[in-house]
Amino acid sequence: MNGFTLYFILLCTKPCFAFRKQQGARRFWSNFSSNKLPVMLDIPQYQNDCWKKQAVSSSLLQSNKNPGAGLGAFTPYDVVLKDGFMPVDCVKDELFMNGDKFGDGKFSYNLEKVSNVSIVHYTEVVPKEDRKPMTQNICFEFCRTVPEMIFFGIFMGRDCYCTPYYKMVADDSSMCDQLCEGDTTKVCGGKSKSSIFSMHMCSSTEADLKKKSIASKFLEGDLKERMHLANDLSGQMQKSARFNQKVFGKAGDPATSDLMQIAKEFAGDLAETAGAAERVTNKLSGLIKDSAELKDFKKSDTVTAAERFMEGMDEADEEGKERRTELGEIVRLAHPSKVELGSATQYYPIMYFVDKEYVNTMTTCSGPLVNKPIVGETVDGCASACDAALHSCVGFVYYGLGNSSLCFLFSGFKSAVYWTGCDEKKAPDLLQLEQTSKGPVKIDPMPCGSVSRAWQSTTFDDKDKTTILQALNIETGVYEDVFKIPKDRTKPAFRSINSCAINVLDSNLYCSMEINGKGSFLVSIDSEKVGFVAKLPGWQYAGVFDSKDNYYCAGDKGWSILSQVSKMVVHSSLFELGSEKFKTTYGSAIGADLAILEEDLTGGGHHKKQTYLLAVKDTTVTMIRVDKTPYDKTTLRAKGLPAGKVWANAWNFKSAIYFASETGEGVYQLYIDSINLGTRTCKFEKVGKSAKSAWSDGISCPGGLSPYRPVHPPEPKPYTATTTTTTTTTITTTTATTTFPLFQCQSNVKINGVQNIKYKGLCLDDTTFQQCANNTMAVWPHTDEPVRSIRMFKAWKREWGDDEARIRAWAAIAQLVTRNNASVLMGTEVTCSETEDDQAWKWSLEFMRYLGAKHILAMALGNEMELYFNKGVPADCITKLWSGGRYFGTLVKRVEEMDRDPDFRSVRVTSVFGSYSFAGWPFVNTPVSQVQTYLTNAWKKYGKRWVWSFNLYPFWDQKCGAGWIGVTSGARGFRQRITAITKSTKDTFWMSETGWSSAPPSNFHDPCPGYCSLGRMRSYYESFLRWRLLDPADGNVDRAFYFTMRDSVNFKMRESFGLVATCQDTACKLQAAEAEIMI
Questions:
Q1: pLDDT score for 299
Q2: How many CB atoms lie within 10 A of CB 18?
């Protein structure tokens, strides 16, 4: 039999480092003076036409019309001299005005003594009967045949000319916005300016092919080496796994047989990966071999064939690099080859910790694996691999020797089997070691995410009295099994489990456990283990933790407290417990389960919260204040609860409290703001379904959000404003017993004439969301109007803080939404990282579900993605997003995921674009910004559910005359472009962002005094509030959002669009005493 030994970590203190090289994608850049945007360009290539003579119309052979840079004769469309072009500028070109020596402009020609060159006009050379409607390609195909020309320009959408250079002269601030006569998706100059394009010289195809072939040969060789290694490792692993599976199968060791099956499957993965790489290698080999036979690269056919070979190599190279990466990753998993001699000496055989008599006995084990099986490593190599997985690997098992050895890494161990008498033939000599029952035990925490589930423990009234942890499906009301806790989990076996609760300090599950003849105990439980914490004062059936590590439990004789539970040792045996640590039992039975409430019910303020123990019997709520002694007990009459029920399940989600009965009437929420200590009443409302249960006990993660949507938004007006100079606004609830402060900035400025405010919203800036979400604006500054809608660009960012910070911010936003009965336009991002996008969407969907569909205006995927190519992202990412369809595919995927909840199937869908989408008709549709295609596809798929959303900022025009008039005219322009696609004027159109900055943003040039000022901001904000929206003269806009609440940093630029400056400020920016500069 093979030798094999199981090792366990003793100590590991070495740090691990990793470095990654990043290869930048090749990109071409230019700068348009018309819009000041650096643009990554898709460059048309015509290499296969280089040096090739083209068929020429007899009407073009006019020797008297052959001007040019060299002023010599040429034949247009005869020989191709350029192989591609790219846009470079939008200028008023002096050569267009004064550089035509032979055409209609010859009388204004003035370059003879300057450069002695001439431009060549398309219309001066090509007869009218041969001319085509002008496009960028038509102009290029003409100018590429004109000798010594480096650039071409197009004016007024149709006037094409070739030029050896261009020279900008002063002009107005107009743009190149004239659509090409023959292609209305592209721009061909302006009313006073030319779109300028540069042309590339024909390159050496032969040299390019040679260079490409050499690179492909390197890749081919690299792939072959990795394929050979992968196939070798696969064969060794298959052989060893088959042998060991046969041996241990006969010996009756299913755990090892399972490990060997995993190894066999991974060996198959190795072979399959090598096979995929072989197919690419064969393709590369054929291309390299065939391309080497090409001769005479002056011939057009040879050049064309070479280009096809290079295209094939590019395609094969891309796939080959993917296969190379896959091979590298899988080979590293199968054979890490990073051996540190002596690594195994830091590990002990697992029997060292169990029974040293068998420390040298061969042992096998089972448990969760880390990474994949390893083949052909030494024991030190196996130990080194475990060291490399520092945060997950706790030990390993090693089978065999040399090339046939197999190594498995473990993150934990479920069972261990030690083998004796391996030289004997009898199977009974193979003994299994029972679990030890001494010392502390490590209990795994419950999976408490940001949103908790509603669990319960229940003991079935069957022959075995089975105890099961279940989770409530809030849609169906059915309790679904999570894991069972068999009676023999403890020795002696336990009788029942109840009074379970999760401690917020360690996320561990604690319950009371009754053991026949031994009494009741507080135990900690996970799916595999039970640990004993303390002796209980009799049988308990209700339990809960507060935020200070205190466990409260209750039974027929009353209730008790156990403090600092998370600091107690969890023992593997009840016989190791010390004396009881419980405080005296108080009072009598108070209810079938307990909840905890930590709120200020006495009016002492946020920092003076009280702690109350709550239980429900029939329709009576018992409240015991436990944060001070003597303990005060109060009973409340509960409205909204069915009478005569046993409320055995209580759930705490932060400050939200829910109860469910054993008879399956449903889940009822206690509304904290309805608690009236004066009238001794409170209110419950049914929020969901629940099935029948028996001997059950509710369990929840007290730090998580509730999985239930709010169903109780207050109906009366959401605020009672005193004056416009107050810092906070008092919100009146339905019970008029509790007030909740929401933020309103101070100002002595009052704006009248506000119109359609219910269709207007505020954008939530990053500063407010991250730093002071509790001071999100609840009232429109300088009015008495509540904020009824909010645009959120995202649900959270990792760098803003941990889950606690996120949940705290969410709770603040949710309070405003609930109190104001507001709605949210919920955004989620699309970037080059699908992993980050998925996490962002997970948070967005989570928060949407928390708010409920009735509070969601729409889901918005992406913001101004038409400019994403300008953010320094890799070219291949842009290609995948647009041409590869990832952006639209992500939209479809997000909507499908959202619609799994029936309540969200009526939520609107949108994507937000900006003014750069105007750069084509009806919208820009370049390879790096395919807005028109995206919008058309989205509208066709979602119909009336789709919302057309656009941001509009006259501020960024940097023109002294810019202002509110740009919004209404721009809105009309957007509406016209929408109609060009849908043929309707009734599609839903939202202005998703607009605003004005009170101070110059970073690196911003003020075009004139007062452009960035409080006075100009006030004028703009007043116009927004008075905007009629739906009037056709105002753009026929259905909804609009103002940017923003506070100053923030966007795209690494400090901006001052906020109506309040910082989180520390309570005053609005606009004050009557401010000096106003109006332009």
A1: 60
A2: 5
Q: Give dist(CA 75, CA 468) in Å, integer.
A: 90
Q: Is the pLDDT of residue 722 over 90?
A: no
The pLDDT, as a whole number, for residue 294 is 84
In a 3-state reduction of DSSP, which class is residue 1009?
coil
Residues in the chain: 1079
Report the Cα 825 to chain-centroid distance in Å. 17
Which distant-in-sequence residues (6+ apart) come within 8 Å of 112 by Cβ? 101
User: Residue 52 is encoded by which pair of tokens?
Assistant: 């090739």
Residue 275 backbone phi and psi in degrees, to 5 = -65, -40
Q: Supply the DSSP string of 608-666, one letter for each residue.
A: S-EEEEEEEETTEEEEEE-SSSSPEEEEEEEESPPSS-B--EEEEETTEEEEE-TT---
Six-digit token pair at 498? Answer: 């109840």
* Strand residues in 72-210 grouped as ranges (E): 82-93, 120-121, 151-155, 159-163, 168-169, 179-180, 183-187, 194-201
20 pLDDT above the threshold of 70? no
- The answer to whether 966 and 957 are in contact (CB under 8 A) is yes
Asked whether the predicted pLDDT for residue 889 surpasses 90, the reply is: yes
When pLDDT is cut at 50, 70 and 90, the band that residue 304 belongs to is: low
pLDDT at 36: 30
CA distances from 275 to 228, 230, 242 (A): 10, 10, 22
User: What sign results for the dihedral spanned by CA atoms 295, 301, 307, 310?
Assistant: negative
Number of other residues whose CB lies within 10 A of the CB of residue 762 = 24
Residue 679: CB partners within 8 Å, gap ≥ 6? none
Of 747, 720, 784, the C-alpha closest to 1061 is 747
| Confidence tier at 512 by pLDDT (50, 70, 90) | very high
How many Cβ atoms are within 10 Å of 408's Cβ, its own excluded?
26
Contact 261, 221 (CB under 8 A): no
Give the DSSP H/E element, type plus range, for residue 836.
helix 834-851
The Cα 945–Cα 748 span in angstroms is 42
Please report the sign of the dihedral spanned by the C-alpha atoms of residue 155, residue 161, residue 167, residue 169: negative
Helix (H, G, I), strand (E, B) or coil at 880: helix
Contact 671, 628 (CB under 8 A): no
Answer whether 38's CB lies under 8 Å from 46's CB.
Answer: no
Name which of 694, 695, 700, 668 is nearest 683 in CA terms. 668
* Number of Cβ atoms within 10 Å of the Cβ of 358: 18
Which amino acid makes up residue 290? D
Grouping H, G, I as helix, E, B as strand and the rest as coil, residue 886 is: helix
Tell the burial category of 606 from Cβ atoms under 10 Å away from its Cβ (0-12, 13-18, 19+).
exposed
Q: How far apart are CA 50 and CA 83, in angstroms?
A: 6
In terms of C-beta density within 10 A (0-12 exposed, 13-18 middle, 19 or more buried), how is residue 13 classed?
Answer: exposed
The residues pairing with 930 across neighbouring beta strands, listed in sequence order, are 925
Q: Please tell me the pTM assigned to this model.
A: 0.42
> What do you get for the CA distance between the two ends of the chain, in Å?
93
Distance between CA 955 and CA 152 in Å, rounded? 33
Rg (CA), the chain: 37
- Over residues 1053-1069, the mean pLDDT reads 90
Spacing of C-alpha 135 from chain mean position: 41
